[in-house]
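Student: I would love a firmer grasp of how sequence relates to backbone shape in proteins. Thank you; the sequence and its tokens follow:
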Amino acid sequence: MEQVTAVRSESMTSERVKRGVPEGLWMRCPQCHATVFRKEVVLRWYVCPECDYHLTMPARDRITQLLDEGTFEEWDTDLRPCDPLGFVDRIPYHQRLTEEQQKTGMWDAAVTGKGFIRGRPVVLGITDFAFMAGSMGSVVGEKLARAAERATELRLPLIFVSGSGGGARMQEGILSLMQMAKVSAAIARHDSAGGFYLCILTHPTMGGVAASWALQGDITLAEPGAMIGFAGRRTIANTVRLELPDNFQTSEFLLQHGFIDRIVHRKDLRTEVARIIDYCTSP
């Protein structure tokens, strides 16, 4: 009897399926390298609960965080990127676009539209790092330029949130670089018409985006620890052969040198933006 029980117990043990940890339940913070519960990070608007590091945040979550619930009206959803140069690097550009669209569920790296922040109507544009590092191609530039023009027509504050670590998109060549001037010109017309423009810089904001609309705000905010600049740190060091400060190209460094107006924690952005709009647009 004991032998039968032992065999049965051994059989049940071998048949029992081991329960592993579900994939994606945990994640490692890029800064402090702590293993943290992914759901907690998302609930904290993609901020590490251990070191307060601000991770990149999807555009749709940005909209949820900044705007009043159910008020966002998205514009220019029919714009699609193409491959005008037939560009090929590791893979053809048209194939890369398809892969990015399938991965992110977005047609390109920018989302624009109209919404309300604590009851205040605004025009909002966001670039998403998840789509080709938020780089600015023809579609991104066109959507941002149209958003600025509509903000002027509607006489509304214009808010751009930059998550463009890729700068201008090299796969579109001069057509991408032209977007720097086009968006800047639309913002200049908005300014000439008496419009207010607020830019929020997040990690990372680099290249042609940093050299154009990202640093042209009437008020420029940045999240803590964001990397902001034109060329990368290694490129600059190898070019000018100078020792750069440890905090070079961070939002803290830019605030110290007068490039931005304020550093705001992500959880406080909505309140601060509403307060700034009231202060800067009141008659």
User: Anything to note?
Assistant: The mean pLDDT is 91. The two ends are 92 Å apart (CA to CA).
